[in-house]
Amino acid sequence: MLNLRAIQILVAVVDTGSITKAAASLGITQPAVSMALHELERGVGIALLDRSTRPLRPTHAGYALYHRAAGLMSDVASLRAVVTSAAADRVPLLRIGCVIPFNSRFVRRLQQMANEIEIRSGLTPDLLQALHARDLDVVVTSSPEAGPAGLHRIRLVSEPFVAVLPRSAGPLPDDAAALPLALLRQLAVVRYTGRSAIARAIEGILRHLGLELPEHFEFHTSQAVLTTVDAGLGWAISTPICIAQCGFPAEAFRLLPLPDVSARRTLAIVHRRDEFEPTVEKIRALVIEHLDELVSSTFKTSPWIGAAMHYG
């Protein structure tokens, strides 16, 4: 029977060409090295070292075992790292896709959950497809559905849609019932690109409000949408998280609730069933904490927004 420790000793002897040097590198005595080598040779029934040469050289059989053993030792080291990480409640690799950006503090806390972290941004359909193809492990998405079969969805937060008008639009009422629909029909509407989940939800809201307006601007990111509104080129429908994640202060825009609109944007964490479940729960708690802090700090002067956020 082959002994893993004896194989490790053989690798050290071949690497150093000396029993003395191998013993020193392994922190054991020379007799212990010699005994392990003899036991290994007796186990395989053939000589593995040519002891007539200096430095020591492996026989043909010894070379064959050495080359396989070198890879085996590397695998053992990797296995040891995996076991150590598991004992520390860490996973070797965690690949996350998300529709929202994360700040450096959030990323540092994620790094405590895994030896290696990969973070990918993108649209919900693309991220869910990557998750299903096993190119991602966890996805933070705004899709109302879990996606392909075998995926599990856990809600993170539900937030309202709000009207985002430029300050240049002039004084406007704060009463939700008095949303100036006539004024909005005169302004250019700044839309999200049609492939995104948020774009489809917003188009439904515009139809509900009777604001089926022609397209003027359409962008892939919240940053581009809100920058265009900030420049006074039009108005948009967005959400508190979208505004806060772009770094805009609440005072940059006139934000108005939408009358008689029940539609909400829901962010959820999606993963493959029975995989990464302890880690997913930690990520869920971390994302909720991150978003709560982000929205609370951005909309201090707009308490109606904080009251409309539903976490968990």
Structure explained in plain terms:
The chain contains twelve helices and 13 strands. It is α/β, with parallel strands linked by helices. It folds into three domains: 4-87, Orthogonal Bundle (Arc Repressor Mutant, subunit A), CATH 1.10.10; 91-158 and 265-311, 3-Layer(aba) Sandwich (D-Maltodextrin-Binding Protein, domain 2), CATH 3.40.190; 162-262, D-Maltodextrin-Binding Protein, domain 2 (3-Layer(aba) Sandwich), CATH 3.40.190. A hairpin with a 6-residue loop joins strand 1 (49-50) and strand 2 (57-58). It starts with a helix and ends with a strand.
Short overview:
With 312 residues, the protein is α/β, with parallel strands linked by helices. The chain has helices spanning 4-16, 19-26, 30-44, 60-87, 104-111, 124-132, 181-186, 197-208, 222-230, 240-245, 277-298, 303-308; strands at 49-50, 57-58, 91-98, 114-121, 138-141, 151-160, 162-166, 190-192, 217-219, 236-238, 253-257, 264-272, 310-311.
Estimate percent helicity. 40-55%
Number of strands: 13
Q: Can you tell me the CATH topology of the largest domain?
A: D-Maltodextrin-Binding Protein, domain 2
Radius of gyration: 30 Å
Morphology call: rod-shaped
Record the strand order, biggest sheet: 4-3-5-12-6-13
* H-E order: HHHEEHEHEHEEEHEHEHEHEEHHE
The helix/strand class is alpha/beta
CATH class of the largest domain: Alpha Beta
Number of domains: 3
Query: Runs with pLDDT <50, length 5+?
Result: none
Mean pLDDT figure: 85
Helix count, per DSSP? Answer: 12
